[in-house]
Automatic annotation (TrEMBL), chain B:
InterPro entries on file: MrpF/PhaF-like
Membrane topology: Multi-pass membrane protein
GO CC annotation terms, alphabetical: plasma membrane
The entry's keywords: Antiport, Cell membrane, Ion transport, Membrane, Transmembrane, Transmembrane helix, Transport
Ion transport among keywords: yes
Localisation: Cell membrane
Keyword Magnesium listed: no
Transmembrane regions: 34-56, 63-83
Xref: Pfam families: MrpF_PhaF
Organism name: Salinicola endophyticus
Main location: membrane
GO molecular function: sodium:proton antiporter activity
Protein name: K+/H+ antiporter subunit F
Amino acid sequence: MLDMLLEGAIAFMLIAGGIFAFIGSLGLTHLKDFYMRLHGPSKTTTLGVGCTLIGSLIFFSQENGPVIQELLITIFAFITAPVSAHMLAKSALHHKLKPDPRTRGNPQELESDRPKHTVEEAPQGNSPLP
Amino acid sequence: MIATALWIALALFSAAIALNFYRAVIGPSLPDRVLAVDTMYMNSIALIVLFGIWVNNKDYFEAALLIAMLGFVSTIAVCKYLLRGDIIE
């Protein structure tokens, strides 16, 4: 009975991790500008990989006692993902990548080449970005 | 049950890596490509862990840990290069 329950938990963790990682990569592929694309990998893929690693932890803990080492990768991924996302966003601002024109607000770093608008009246309609 | 879940997860992670590779090839700017490669190494960690479950061997976890650490350091190094034009000033 307990074996069955553990197997179900492992299978659920593996499939949930795969679905999360796939959704993150889907966002990376077809969102419009870089600042939107950053969301997918930095949040969703990290959660997906974390789920898979926890599934693996349960799998290897079944036979002889708990195996804690796999938690190391999970913790490391959860610590480092925001740091690398922050660095990537900084380098994108430094290169002055174009945001989608419907984006609200005017970041200071991009101010020179963007039309002025307040937060309430952001332009509507279709984006010219691919 | 685990075998089926393993196959589904392997297929999903492989599809994710294919999508990342597509973004790394077409990515219009340099940070896009760096982000795509960063995501690719995260997904490859999960692939290695899934392979470890498949062959029922605990040792593959060390390879995954190594990839995680080196990938993070290389992402930070490339970002630093894009920001400053130099890695260690």
